[in-house]
Design a protein that fits this description.
One of its GO terms (cellular component) is early endosome membrane. This protein has 103 residues and is mainly alpha-helical. It is 69% helix and 0% strand. It folds into two domains: 67 residues; 36 residues. The relative contact order is 0.10.
């Protein structure tokens, strides 16, 4: 139920929303409708940010101070950082890290 406020439920629905947008982008030809493509990319970024926010909240609850520090500003100078770049980089880094753990 979408009205469930638990972090796990929030994550489930946020992940579901992210997958819906990602699937639409995968099957979408942005050259035919660039405005729709821009809208979908913005929705994807918002969905990723929501998943990241919930993931951070879950990790804060479960592992608190034991979390590894992810300081992207040390690795990437100010001139290449964009508004949500740190979150996007974290998303990609964490997913890649998790895939390495599984393999």
């Amino acid at each position: 139920m979408r009205d469930d406020k638990s972090l796990l439920a929030q994550f489930f629905y946020a992940d579901e929303d992210l997958n819906i947008v990602a699937s639409e982008l995968d099957s979408f030809d942005g050259r035919k409708d660039p405005e729709r493509c821009t809208t979908l990319v913005n929705q994807l970024r918002q969905a990723q940010d929501k998943v990241l926010t919930i993931t951070n909240a879950i990790m804060d609850v479960l592992i608190g101070d034991e979390r590894a520090n992810r300081d992207f500003r040390v690795k990437f100078p100010e001139d290449v950082l964009q508004e949500n770049l740190a979150g996007q980089l974290w998303f990609g880094a964490e997913v890649g890290d998790r895939q390495g753990d599984i393999l």
